[in-house]
Amino acid sequence: MSKSTTLPVNDSAEPQLGRRLATYGSTRQGFTLNIIAGAALIIAGAAAAILSISAWDTTGILCATVGIVLIMLGTWGIYSTLRRKQLLVTVYRDGLTYRAGKQQTIIYWEEIASFFCDTPEHYAAQRFSNRNAGQPVHFCKIRTVDGQTFAFDDTLRHVYKLAAAIDENTVALIAPYVMTAFEAGSAIDFGPLVVSREGLQTHNAFCPWHEVVRFDISRQRGTIVVEQANNPVRFGTFMIAYVPNMTSLKVIVQRMLAEHTDGNVALRTLAA
To answer: Side-chain half-sphere of 23: how many Cα atoms within 13 Å?
Structure first.
């Protein structure tokens, strides 16, 4: 596999990646709010500086200092917001391009070694924000064969569609390698979980397949919950964000549970 390459933004990627299918641009989330907040800080700082002129004593010096700090913070906030690199991700028949600033990176589908979707940080942000309870926060991340990581969140318009496109185009390439290794007897690393034909392994515990009594995937909570027989404490709760290639994990778990629990335990995907 070749490594991902970079091109100037003016160079078309179609000769390398084939027909363009979709483009996902930045929503510039928070742009207006940042500009307003920066302007408010500058105004407040200027007012404090003006007040200091009429009282050039300890109070005046304090006002002048506070005013200068506020002006500097407001100016820095506006400058950094205007200078923020706008992301642009374009999906093609044979891969995608990731543009940040003046360079774009070409990534072929076969160069993607791992696909992650959803993150605990975004679930936490949803709980403590003004979002509606039913409104999801989307996130996905890819890791290439040469170790580069590219992350996409809901600062990109319709990022959930981008995640679906990446998953659709990579699962057929990643899954055969994973399943071949599993069939050959290798343990497969799914981040916090290592899966083998014998059972599930974490950094400090092992659960044979025949002792699994619950395996739930909750997209709303962003977690995988596994319970072990005769274990008063859950075997483990794992964040989906840290689990790569979920499609392959689900296929393996469904098969192993069917074989080792006589179909009495099944993988469940929960809506809430």
So the answer is: 9
Rounded to whole angstroms, the Cα distance separating 249 from 108 reads 23
Residue 21, CA atoms < 13 Å, CB-side half-sphere = 14
Question: What pLDDT score does 173 carry?
Answer: 93
Angle at 128 (CA atoms; ends 124, 129), nearest 5 degrees: 110
∠ Cα 104 247 209 (to 5°): 140
46, 139 in Cβ contact below 8 A?
Answer: no
Evaluated on CA atoms 218, 224, 228, 231, the torsion sign reads: negative
Confidence of residue 91 (pLDDT cuts 50, 70, 90): very high
For residues 46 and 71, give the distance between their C-alpha atoms in angstroms, rounded to a whole number.
Answer: 7
Integer CA distances (angstroms), 19 to 95, 168, 186, in order: 10, 17, 38
Cα separation values, 159 from 30, 93, 112, 163, Å: 17, 18, 18, 6
CA neighbor of 174 nearest in space, from 217, 143, 198: 143
Edge-first strand listing for the sheet containing 223-228: 236-239, 223-228, 212-218, 267-270
pLDDT digits (tens, 9 = 90+) for 22-71: 999 876 656 677 788 888 889 988 888 887 777 666 777 788 888 888 88
Alpha-carbon distance of 239 to 218, in angstroms, equals 10
- For residue 241, the 8-state DSSP code is G
Segment among 12-21, 120-129, 171-180 with least mean pLDDT: 120-129
Q: Report pLDDT for 240.
A: 87
Q: Which has the higher per-residue pLDDT, 242 or 132?
A: 242
Q: Which distant-in-sequence residues (6+ apart) come within 8 Å of 31 by Cβ?
A: 81, 84
Do residues 119 and 219 touch, judged by C-beta distance below 8 A? no
